[in-house]
Amino acid sequence: xxxxxxxxxxxxxxxxxxxxxxxxxxxxxxxxxxxxxxxxxxxxxxxxxxxxxxxxxxxxxxxxxxxxxxxxxxxxxxxxxxxxxxxxxxxxxxxxxxxxxxxxxxxxxxxxxxxxxxxxxxxxxxxxxxxxxxxxxxxxxxxxxxxxxxxxxxxxxxxxxxxxxxxxxxxxxxxxxxxxxxxxxxxxxxxxxxxxxxxxxxxxxxxxxxxxxxxxxxxxxxxxxxxxxxxxxxxxxxxxxxxxxxxxxxxxxxxxxxxxxxxxxxxxxxxxxxxxxxxxxxxxxxxxxxxxxxxxxxxxxxxxxxxxxxxxxxxxxxxxxxxxxxxxxxxxxxxxxxxxxxxxxxxxxxxxxxxxxxxxxxxx
Length: 364
Ligand SMILES: [Zn+2]
Ligand SMILES: [Zn+2]
Prior knowledge:
Elements: E1 2-8, E2 16-22, E3 29-38, H1 41-47, E4 58-59, E5 64-71, E6 83-86, H2 96-99, E7 122-124, E8 127-131, E9 141-145, E10 149-151, H3 167-179, E11 187-190, H4 194-205, E12 211-214, H5 218-227, E13 231-233, H6 240-248, E14 252-257, H7 262-270, E15 272-280, H8 294-298, E16 302-305, H9 313-325, E17 335-339, H10 344-353, E18 358-362
Parallel strand pairs: 4-8, 11-12, 11-14, 12-13, 14-15, 15-16, 17-18
Antiparallel strand pairs: 1-2, 1-4, 2-7, 3-5, 3-9, 3-18, 5-6, 6-10, 7-8
Helix pairs in contact: 3-4, 4-5
Bound molecules: zinc ion (2 copies).
One zinc ion is lined by residues 40, 42, 62-63, 166.
């Protein structure tokens, strides 16, 4: 079959809309008609050269939702017509990490841009086209391992639900599953894009006390307030570390770096109080390193990483949807703009200009 997809050929080039060939799903694979795809900074990292592109050309997009159109042999977890959200990590359910409750670190699948056997289902003129995170949601249709999709309830607003798979779970999961923020904690969030705003929502859910949002965009700081931040800092106007130490009288219990720069991660660490924890959420440049003052570390401070919200997607996705349905989480405020696939490059421009919380691509 044919499908329209947004393809990246090389860094520093815009995505090109192509009509690709897409094969039917093989055994243990599913064909999904994509409903919504989130425009995430992690995708842009490959366009601006912040991260190396794993294989080219590649259908971009790792955040998405849709409807199962066809299933391959041996697929038992979903049926045609089911609403699904893509987990950007396929989960085998049997390896040590899956069994220990860390399915996003599944060692059977790893993080591939092909099917598990190394073949691709997308092609153009008989040449392989790869798929971002093994998903490739900037496409009308995609074929993925059945272990990548999570079935959700029939009443899910399926276009908007695309954000659950990355922005929402990465933000809230990091707070709840990884950092395990306790009630009454003081928290700082460096970077208030789609993921950072969800770190704020997670801090509110966890009954944090002081919630400090840091961003250079006044638009995003306003969004942060709407999501529950108690204080905002624009680093172009005030030194964030000094301001945080002053507001909290000694530092936050938890700081989250959601931008992806080592110097900001250092600031996040310096903003913690003795006993505090700095959490790296942002995807850092290749070979990025930081150094920390050992005397600071000695005082029971922690510096930890968090990948994909340390999520258990088969539990967490429906949990987050239920919170949204019951008015305890805000999804609509996160979505600033909906665009068709053809406007994906403009959506990235909006993101870089700091004038949207999150854009989503929607498909008819
Ligand atoms: Zn993402
Ligand atoms: Zn596994």
